[in-house]
Records
---
Amino acid sequence: MIPISDNIYTRRKPIVNSWLIGINMALFLWELKLELTGELGSFINNWSVIPAQISAAATQALFGNPAAWIVVVLRSSSLLVSMFLHGSFSQILGNLLFLWVFGKTVENIFGARRYLAFYLASGIFTGVIQIIAEPNLSVSLIGANGAIASVLGAYLVKFPQTKIYSILPLLIVYIPVEIPAIFYLFWWFAQQLFYGIGSLNIPTSINQPSFAYWVHGVGFLIGAAYMRILQRR
């Protein structure tokens, strides 16, 4: 099931959402270049979220090693950068498709600056939760999954019954259909299982099925809670 668009009129152009999609695409092209030169593994290792490294440095810093704070700060920057990296074609295509369909409407509700802050904060907070969930995990975690889950959560709280224009691939025939937005909550989680399709040749483990990887679903709760707060105000 492929979402195409919704039927909600937006007054503003989704400038921030378009820029987020563009940055993700540009960095993925950069990853493809690094894959050809054999530098991709090192790049991912430096800029992905590796819970074991961050938690180890934080523990040393808290127990009296001032120099460890430098490592904590440097490694914590990966919480932001890793949001714009992807490990496979299926992961980036799935993420950006959901971001395009649902993000433009959420940006119209929040406004550009608030939407950007919401997107980045949700992704970073989800990364922190992943580290807390499995502090000894030595696998690299990358992708905008947590941030996009928050966008989906905010959208579904506001428009749970909105019809999403979708395409149902049936062999070589594509049938246009309209599906309630709530369906894509379940479909988003289901498609996480297929994000290994078209994986880049990265000589390290990334996004392995683990509790920490699935914790990015917390992003959905963040988005839903934030939209609830705005509605009450």
Note: The beta strands are 2-6, 163-170, 173-180.
---
Amino acid sequence: MAVIAPSGPVDPDRLAAGTALLRGMGLDVALGKHVLDQVGLDGGRPARSDWYRLAGTDADRAADLTDAWCDPSVRAVFCARGGYGATRLLDHLDWTALAAATGPEPKILHGSSDVTALHAAFGARLGVTTSFGPMVASQIIASPDPAEDGAQALAGLRSALFGSGTIEVPGTSVIRAGRAEGPLTGGTLALLTALLGTPHAPPPAAGKIVFLEDVTEEPYRIDRMLTQLLQSGWLDGAAGVALGSFHDCGDPAEALAVLAARLAPLGVPVLAGLPAGHGPRQLTLELGAPAVLDTGARHLLGGTG
């Protein structure tokens, strides 16, 4: 597997710890050429704040991703971390080369958060399913506590990499009851809204189960982004909605009330509290794969791959 950094700069110690853990699973891990690079948003000297830095220039980060995906010896491409910058890569990728390298048994693209931009583009342009879950240099992978939720995240990641059949992701709160089936789509709410109106926007959610999550977004910002998805028509015809963690998003009760007020009128099953996203419990989901949302059983069933 190859580890790349498509977004923000990577902490070397966390990267080393995360790659050691993956090697402990029996994986042969190679690092992208630019995985530890750092530049500013203007491509020059990096700024002091992490949010004003990227893990290399757009061209270099795109080259690492393209090289990994097009290398026949690489079976999976894992993103080291999120942050900011993945949307900037989309105009730099050689989609013809990426499509040519996508065989009948395509590689795994794994990541979350900012990597939602890559999930959406790879799903739409290459027709592959992608893996949404904890990243190599994230705290939950690089410093897992076996007594805490890190162990559950690692078990979910192992299942996604090596398992077969289906995985069950439990929810905690029913916003609107019902059962739905369809391909799983979505990701981090802020990234989905950022892609609307661009050539890289994810296909409409009609007939699909929509997974949404986010972090450090106040309830009014969640309301604004949901309003944008609704007014754009992107949610029209969605089969159901599965809500992951909305971690550090202000008052949890207020955030849940906003989600319910905006999504219940869709008239489809809505299940909240799935342990996926930015929270301390990060199970792995396969975007693009068939899924079943059942609020009676309070779970999302999806394929592994």
Note: The CA atoms of residues 12 and 254 lie 37 Å apart.
